[in-house]
Specification:
The protein is built from three helices and six strands. The chain is α+β, with helices and mostly antiparallel strands. The chain has one domain.
Length: 153
């Protein structure tokens, strides 16, 4: 009689261990899914913010007169109408953003928007490459090439 009781309790213990193992595996899969969903959500948010700032800068450049775009100081003033902090190095302009995509200094930056301009070509077209990237791993989030035609005269 005692022997069957031990047998049943051993089977019951084994059944509980299998159930716990099953729920632990399901929990691990769920946690992994939630972590992946968070990562995808963050990447999508970054992409949206990056594209928004790229479009904003492109519209600013498109609205400017060619004389403004020829002068680095005037181009910085143009960018300052929307962004308080602009770093310039020759024909390369850099905007820095914190984790909330607010314009900030280079030391606080989580994201970078780089504007690289070229001189006019023979067809009076000036090309700008606008790139956003993460500062921690220098991965590109999005990029746009903008070509602006300048009338002669």
């Amino acid at each position: 009689m005692n022997r069957t009781s031990n047998n049943r309790s051993g089977l019951f213990l084994l059944e509980i261990m299998i159930a716990i193992l099953f729920f632990a595996m399901v929990s691990a899969v769920c946690l992994r899914s939630f972590a992946r969903a968070h990562t995808l959500s963050q990447e999508a948010s970054d992409m949206n913010q990056a594209m928004s700032h790229i479009e904003n800068v492109a519209e600013l450049l498109k609205s400017a007169d060619s004389a403004v775009l020829d002068d680095s100081e005037q181009t910085v003033n143009l960018l300052n109408t929307e962004y308080a902090l602009v770093s310039v190095n020759q024909k390369q302009y850099t905007l820095y953003f914190n984790n909330d995509w607010e314009n900030c200094s280079e030391q606080e930056a989580a994201y970078t928007l780089l504007i690289q301009g070229s001189d006019l070509n023979s067809k009076n077209i000036r090309t700008y490459t606008i790139t956003t990237s993460r500062t921690k791993d220098d991965t590109t989030i999005d990029q746009l090439t903008l070509e602006l035609y300048t009338k002669k005269g």
